[in-house]
Amino acid sequence: MAESRWWRYFKLNIFDPGEDLKSADRYRLLQRNIVVLMMLVTIIPLTLMAVINYHQYRSSLTDEIINPMRLLTSKTKHSFELFLEEKLSTVRFITSAYPVDTLANERNLNRIFRVLKKEFGGFVDLGLIDCQGIQVSYAGPYDLLAKDYSDQAWYHEVTIRGTYISDVFMGYRNFPHIAIAVQLGNDECDNWVLRATIDTYLFDNLIVAMGLDAQSDAFLINDKAVFQTNSKFYGKVLEKCPFLPPPGNYGIHIEEETDPNGREVIVVYTHLENFCCNLVMVKPKSVVLKTWFTLKSEMFFIFIIGAVLILLTIFKMTGVLVKKTRDADERRELAFRELEHAHKLSSIGRLAAGVAHEINNPLAVINEKAGLMKDLVERAEPFDKKEKFMEVTASIQKSVDRCKTITHRLLGFARRMEVQFELLDVNDVIREVLGFLEKEYLYRGIEIRMELDENLPQISSDLGQLQQVFLNILTNAFSAVEDNGLVVIRTWEQDPETLGVSIEDNGCGMSKETLNQIFEPFFTTKKGYGTGLGLAITYGIVQKLGGRLKVESQEGEGTVFYVFLRKTPPSNTGERR
Amino acid sequence: MAEHKQEEIAFFGKITAAATHEMKNVLAIIKETTGLMEDLILLSPEMPASLREKCQSTLSVIQNQIKRGVDISDHLNWFAHCTDVPTASMDLSTTAVQMTRLAQRFAKLKGVVLEVKPSEAPITVQVRPVFLLMTLFTCIRCCLNALSPGSRIVLAPGEFDTGLAFSFLMKEKDATPDALFSALSADAAWSDLRQMAAALEGTVQWVPGGPSIRLLLPDSSP
Amino acid sequence: MKERTLLLVDDEVEFVQTLAERLQLRGFQVHTAHDGDEALIQLEKNRFDMVILDVMMPGLGGLDVLKQMKPLYPKTPVILLTGRGSTNDGIEGMRLGARDYLMKPINIDELIKKIDENLSRD
Fold first, then answer.
1. Inter-chain contact C14–B61, Cβ cutoff 8 Å?
2. Is domain B88-216 in CATH 3.30.565.10, yes or no?
3. Digit-coded pLDDT (tens) for A157-202
4. How many CB atoms lie within 10 A of CB B102?
5. Parent domain of A135
6. Does pTM top 0.90 for this prediction?
7. CB-based contact, A357 to chain B, within 8 Å
8. Is A32 part of a structural domain of the chain?
9. Among A294, A315, A406, B180, which is least packed by CB within 10 angstroms?
10. A-B contacts (CB, under 8 Å)
């Protein structure tokens, strides 16, 4: 599938900037492009996430913090309602348990009052009011007997409703109280009223039980926003409250307002059932949202640090990567140039080889011609100087032999410039070379024992050169042994990077002096027909292949040649398949 | 690093030069020996006539072959000495002649005739000798790969309007320049040639008018 | 003893003709060819006891001739002549079915020894 055009354009401009620029500039440009690209790809999502998270957290935290406030207010509301309900029940119980006449008796009332005070806290006084609104019986610390309540609003309320719980009032005593009144009846009339006064310090207890922190405030206010309990910050009982409760019956209402001191606060209003009042909780926004502010600054902090880290990492990493790319490019250039050089040498080698080979042809002709003359003269009738003729032609042939040596040496040398690597199995190469020598060893009855490691791994080497190496060594071995001698060939894995080959013969062996010189060029023990070059060339080939050649020998017993070959070519030659 | 490579090449050249010298020595020996035989024949009237004739003709063949051997050795020697120095001032015609001779066998094996047409006046250029020879040889190889047996290549150095160059004229019967060029460009050696020419600071051009390959050299005669 | 027939193939005319002459002096019947195509034609026309084949020839080289003649004349032994300084051609040739090889310039006695060895095997 073809790449779309703009994708190619994109790739080209980002990753292959300035084709015609100098190398250093190109890499700087590349680095710049990558840095910008990476920055965009990392910073943009990061910012996006930060922004989204900010808003998400904001709303959810606000909820999370408001909810406990809601809960607390709710619980406290129930506490209040329960408290009041309990007090009311107590008074109602008294009205049910004792008839009017009993209660009208002051001594009874006192006794009841004492029990009331003892068993239930908070009762300040207890009084019975007749149908005309006159207090006829009273138990308590104040002097209120015969007080007339008939024109009081609460009195009317209780006659209508049957029960009544009042707002906080100061009344005659300058302490905040609330009154609970319950209607009861006898034969005379229905609206006798039993009235108890409750101390509001119990309210304060309930508020304290809310466990608010120092910055927060909670209090009761009535529908006209008059304090029923003391507020920490905003006023005392019966003063006007700056916060207005919402009208009507409502559940829980939460407002964000500014208090008289200028602080931003969250105000929770809740209306008490069956009671005039509203429970109000005021918390400064800063306290409420303390967690949020902390989170906000933490988020910001993290964002900044993250961004900085990202930038640093990007710069550092792209720097490293671009440098690596540059190094790799340079290395590749170098390898190309090296390969080029190897190419160069092999080209020269090839040319020289071609030419040298050409010399063989006239030499071959000369050789044959001289040989022919020798043949003819040999077969002719004897004549004067016949012997001389034969000598001279023989000497021509000897000269030709010398030339042959020279060209073959040169060609071998030239060929060594050309090394071509491929994967091969050393065991196979050895078997091949042996096949080539088969006639000789069969003819001479030489026993060949093969101890080749069948699991020998393949190596990367030059086939022709290896053949030459083994051929040379085997030829030497054959020269060294007698007919019916023994040659043992072994192969093994020497170590993870090297193979070992050994060719051992039980021939005449070599003396120490000979051993020291065998790899010298032109050193030969084959007087007259050895060129002395075979082992020198072999040594050179093994070196070129990156291997090692070793010889051990005992005069009269035999010789072992060790060839150690690398599995992979040395790094300064190119691999061509 | 580059010096080692240069040393390697110079070493190779030295060995080759030594070989050619020795070769010529031996050829000289053979020549003398042959001369001796010719003399012996002349000094042996009792030698059977047929044998005598046979030997004389044989000896003259040998002499020709000796000349041939010497000729080849000389060319190889020239080639070997080119590796002595990293840069040299080379005469284009001499180079062309030597190159033609050196590559003769490669052409013969492909059945192609390789000729040279030297320039009238001497033209010299400062180059890396081995590299130039390698490039020329690669040029010849490209031509040989693209041409069929029976064709001809004419190597001619010269001064063109675009600069100093070696021109390789490719003559094949019934082959169009386009066909030749597509054969050339399909050859892996062609891109090698272009790279080598660039490394020489020259260029390779295809001239359909020849049709020929023109190897332009950097214009820097000393 | 029956006269043995040889085919010599080499593009170097002087060489091949002189060698032929020398072998004839030694009792062989010798035919010559100067390139691969000629060699194949000769093989069609006559029966040979042995073929002596030069590796480096223009056009059809020695190894190509070997490849072509092996399926046609499997019983005919081949000895290769090569001027190259390496053993590659020899080994490659053996792989293709040649019996042996010699490097030029050759020693005629060595050649004859190899001819004898290979002919006596059949």
1. yes
2. yes
3. 888 888 888 888 776 557 788 888 888 887 878 888 888 988 888 8
4. 23
5. 87-289
6. no
7. yes
8. no
9. A294
10. 140
